[in-house]
Amino acid sequence: MVSVADTETIRPELEYLATAAEYCFRGRVDKSGYSGPVIARGRGSVVFDVEGREYIDFNSGMMCAALGHNHPRIVEAVRESCELIIHASSSLYNTKEIELARRLARVMEPPLKKSFFLTTGSDANEAALAAARKYTGAAEVASPHVGFHGLNDSTRAVTYGVPDWHKGYGTGQTAHAIFAPYCYRCPLGLTYPKCEIACLDASFELLDAQTSGPLAAVITEPMFSAGGVIPTPPGWLFKLREAVHARGALLVLDEEQTGLAKTGSMWMHQQEGVTPDILTTAKHFGGGMAISALVTTPEIEEGVVSRGFVFGHSNSSDPIACNAALATLGVIEEESLPDRALDVGGYWRAHLERLASHYEIVGDVRGRGVIQGIELVKDRTTRTAYYEAGPRIARQCLTAGLIFSVRRGGSVLRFVPPFSTTHAQMDHAAEVLELALRDAQTALVNE
Ligand SMILES: Cc1ncc(COP(=O)(O)O)c(C=O)c1O
């Protein structure tokens, strides 16, 4: 531990890290040690650390700053709520919550209309599963084997995409995994579309054998983000909804990553024409402020309330967070963010495809809108995953001023540039990434 007397002679980062080592708990997502950078401020698509170094943030914070860090409209809404009221009893309705519910219904596919505002993405998914259980009277739920829905107990139970985040917590008693349509590595060794989505038939055959009672819900993302940027193929979601409804269960769609314009439409399910029974949203919904929502139909809402459904936490529906979310919906509309997602995402995707044409270790390029990823392989024919490369590439890029995340145990690089990202920033990011890819490819050749 560094003493206060020493601080004038040392660099601020070392001081912060020493203090972190003394006081901060390490068990957090993607970080188990004490290392820099230590972030101090941010604006638009860049963040700055305590040493004044600048980073292009292709992780959009934790995907919550997709509008750009400290978007002026969010700052204004927060400031307004600081004058009016920050927190209110969630047992009473407040003006901002009611305005937000009405505003959100305007961008929903009917009959989705009734909103419940919570704080985190995990909360909203937990509430969705609780509502599905109350509505159906069933306990068991299922989700695809590369999905991620949160790290509270009920959502960790249906999170299979990162094994370390699932195993060892004793949460899985009423949850089951089904095959995700991970077509680059088809679990059945088939090829889409000739497969006719056989992975779903196989999944439900197993699920029907495994469940000990009726099924309450299947929860899924329309594109598996944390599981490795894996878009579901056309037709999968439709077939899933049919299979779920045939069993009297509900389809819960977790659009916390993919919703609110990121994939080029307001919601990704609109691209498939498949409306879920319950939708959840979070991440940049609050423009950086923590707020999530569950949205469902009046029929389901009536059904669960009449059965005594209660959910919520002390900060559910807080006016300050609802006001920020209102500002976010305004920004999405006024700045045509679905179009921006296609522009930013398309430009970055072109860079990734160019890099794939130069570097053999890039086995696959995939994603939608501003959520894009590459899968690293040692051999394009065998598709042997190049797990060691991801963390090395990410570290090298971080040192050079580019932030992104690494998924699938190291073999997938995931990029989520904020909507505010300029072409010049993407050109620069591509240069940084190219150097690291070149080094990783050279390391493989020399292995
Ligand atoms: C698809 C998805 N669902 C749920 C969550 C959990 O959200 P939170 O971390 O806000 O609880 C995440 C977080 O990354 C996510 O990506």
Structure description:
- The chain starts with 11 loop residues before the first helix and ends with a helix.
- It is globular, with a radius of gyration of 22 Å.
- 50% of the residues are buried.
- The chain has 14 helices and 18 strands.
- It is α/β, with parallel strands linked by helices and 447 residues long.
- The longest helix is centred in the C-terminal third of the chain and has 23 residues, at 423-445.
- 38% of the residues lie in helices and 17% in strands.
Main attributes of the structure:
single chain; about 450 residues; seven-stranded mixed sheet; five-stranded antiparallel sheet; 14 helices; 18 strands; binds pyridoxal-5'-phosphate
Indicate the mean pLDDT: 96
Distance between the termini: 40 Å
Q: In total, how many beta strands?
A: 18
Give the biggest sheet. Answer: 7 strands, mixed
* Percent of residues in helices: 25-40%
Helix run count: 14
Low-confidence stretches: 1-8
Shape: globular
Radius of gyration: 22 Å
In percent, how much strand structure appears in the residues? 15-25%
Order of strands across the biggest sheet?
4-12-11-10-7-5-6
Bound molecules: pyridoxal-5'-phosphate
Short description:
With 447 residues, the chain is of the alpha/beta class.
Write the layout of secondary structure elements.
Blueprint: H1 12-23, E1 39-43, E2 46-49, E3 54-57, H2 60-63, H3 72-84, H4 95-106, E4 114-118, H5 121-136, E5 140-144, H6 153-156, H7 163-166, E6 175-178, H8 198-210, E7 215-220, E8 223-224, E9 230-231, H9 236-246, E10 250-254, E11 278-281, E12 292-296, H10 298-306, H11 319-334, H12 337-358, E13 362-368, E14 371-379, E15 384-385, H13 389-399, E16 402-403, E17 405-407, E18 412-415, H14 423-445
Parallel strand pairs: 3-16, 5-6, 5-7, 7-10, 10-11
Antiparallel strand pairs: 1-2, 2-3, 4-12, 8-9, 11-12, 13-14, 14-15, 14-18, 17-18
Bound molecules: pyridoxal-5'-phosphate.
Pyridoxal-5'-phosphate (PLP) binds at residues 120-122, 125, 148-150, 221, 225-226, 254, 256-257, 282.
